[in-house]
Amino acid sequence: MPNVSNLPESTVRRLIWIASVAIPLVVILLLSLPRIDIGVDTSFIPRLNALINTSVSVLLLVGYFLIRQKQVSAHRKVMLTAFGLSVLFLVSYVVYHLTHEEVRFGGTGWIKVLYLFVLITHVGLSVFVVPLALFTMYPALMGRYGEHKRLARWTFPLWLYVSVTGVLVYVFLHPYYPQ
């Protein structure tokens, strides 16, 4: 982890905002590009992403339990692992969507309404998780635990919701992936 304590706080906050805006824009740009053949079968990635999201969900819950037990060092390791896996998810998500056409949900009726609700809230809230996670991690890394705790009360449930609904989106789409 880079030593953010050497940077002025205004610089760190500016970098977080830049990353928070740039990441979704870059993802949208990449996903709008024509599909490419990278010479490797990437059809396993949706299953991998569901596993990553499941792992992130479990790690978030473990991290919450650890901090409630005042196990700060273990909490830090677990939460940094959850963050690292979330970054890995984002990279593999982009790779999959660069190499495969979009998979559309084929259900109808109330199940489609439920799917669309889960998908829209998942995608919409995922945009907020990036700045929330970064702004929550920064004070913790600086030892400002009060500020970290105040932000984590918002970040934790949103991040958990996004990771759980990521798994649900996979479950909904699983029957429609090419075999």
Structure overview:
This protein is an all-alpha fold and 179 residues long. The protein contains five helices and no strands. The termini are far apart. The model has no long low-confidence stretch (mean pLDDT 94).
Major sheet details: none
Radius of gyration: 18 Å
**Binned strand content:** under 5%
How far is it from the N-terminal to the C-terminal residue, by CA?
A: 40 Å
Nearest-integer average pLDDT: 94
Task: Give keywords.
179 residues; mainly alpha
Task: Explain the layout of strands and helices.
Layout: H1 9-32, H2 45-68, H3 72-99, H4 110-141, H5 145-173
Structure described in brief:
By secondary structure, this protein is mostly helical. It has helices at 9-32, 45-68, 72-99, 110-141, 145-173. It has one domain (4-176).
